[in-house]
DNA sequence: TTATATTTTTAGACAAGCCTAAAAAATTTA
DNA sequence: TAAATTTTTTAGGCTTGTCTAAAAATATAA
């Protein structure tokens, strides 16, 4: 269907589109750890295939077709992550790279059967929504802990940083998906956040609070 | 670890090595549906990496390392085929192309866990042995139906042709792995073979008899 | 054993996807 | 608004893996 490189570009553009409508060449280059000139080459190719809207110097956005392809890649990625954690018992910080490879297996029939086999899960192990076979999924209505008021309580439901070091840290602190927490205090000196979980207090840095999402 | 192309060449060389010790450039080209000149290029590369023994004009054989890599690819292929049939309920004629992609997912940890998840199967859906995590597997001691004497009986245990048209034909005739059959007669005119299965007679062509394997 | 046919390799080219260096366009700053 | 800076594109090159056409080596046949 599409080459590996094309799929990775579409995924990157999709991800960056969530932050800002129009995506710049440099942003894509940074996301994919490649050079701006390489990005320009690929953008022309993707535009030729009608997967993106592209005018020189003006940045890009996905076409409807492009977005469909991107969402499908994300569906495949998240379903394989779910499989790896729920069926093969990998930890949530171990699955990203494997899923990065597996998401390029092309058969949709395979993915739909995998979905069925696992009971049509709606969230991956990091709390991100899994698109269904039509590409529909609930948009996450989550807030970073750093963005809520003191005394708010909520359920840990997602992360912004998917790096294994961050996920390992959360695991160690017991800050995993589903846990109920209350934001007790924000220390003005360095924005450290004091949480309560299972009747115990826990301090997390501003950085961690920025990357940990809760449902209110 | 190795590129997709390298893995496919190693697999092809391994497969051809089972028929004849030394494998020729043209044989590999035919197996991979490519040109002899392309094969020569790749052989030099594989030889540089010490994966094959290669002298110009003399054909090739796998080194120990090369064979290990090849067997590992076959292990991955067959485990994924097993997964697709046993867990996702695909038919045995539908899984080859998918497994062809999946066999290149690189993590060995993933494959070992998949193996465990499925209870360490020893045969794939076509009856081929699945190498264990050390690369060991039972060699198939099977015979083509065309190669056994009249009145022999045995269990259908493998196929030589993995094409979906052949597998679909077998399925339709009920000639699936595990079935007990007796070779009743070989019609001298065209070598048609008359089988008995479940007390019913069944005629198969010489071609089919050549590609259907039984354990005695 | 020489001629013919086949197989294999070499030479040179091409597409995909990447790179560096330089030019062009857009943006920011003064 | 002109100058400086940043961003993006172009130009040209590299690697991988493929191809065709031609040359070289090997195998077969007369």
Query: What share of the residues of chain A lie within helices?
Result: 40-55%
Shape descriptor of chain A: globular
CATH topology of the domain at 143-215 in chain A: SH3 type barrels
The helix-strand sequence of chain A is: HHHEEHHHEEHEEEHE
User: From the structure provided, what is the oligomeric state, counting identical versus distinct chains?
Assistant: homodimer
Low-pLDDT windows of residues of chain A: none
Structural class of chain A: alpha+beta
Tally of extended strands of chain A?
8
Instruction: Please tell me how large the radius of gyration of chain A is.
Output: 19 Å
The fourth-level CATH homologous superfamily of the domain at 143-215 in chain A is Ferrous iron transport protein A (FeoA)
- Largest sheet properties of chain A: 6 strands, antiparallel
- Separate helix tally of chain A: 8
Report on the architecture of this protein.
Two copies of one chain form a homodimer. The first copy, chain A, is an alpha+beta fold. Among the domains of chain A are: 4-62, Orthogonal Bundle (Arc Repressor Mutant, subunit A); 143-215, Ferrous iron transport protein A (FeoA) (SH3 type barrels). The first copy, chain A, is 42% helix and 18% strand. Chain A contains eight helices and eight strands; from the N terminus they run αααββαααββαβββαβ. In chain A, strands 3-8-4-5-6-7 form a six-stranded antiparallel sheet. In chain A, strands 1-2 form a two-stranded antiparallel ribbon. The longest helix of chain A is centred in the middle third of the chain and has 23 residues, at 64-86. Chain A is globular and about 55 Å long. At the A-B interface, α5 and α6 of A face α5 and α6 of B. The structure holds a DNA duplex (30 and 30 nucleotides).
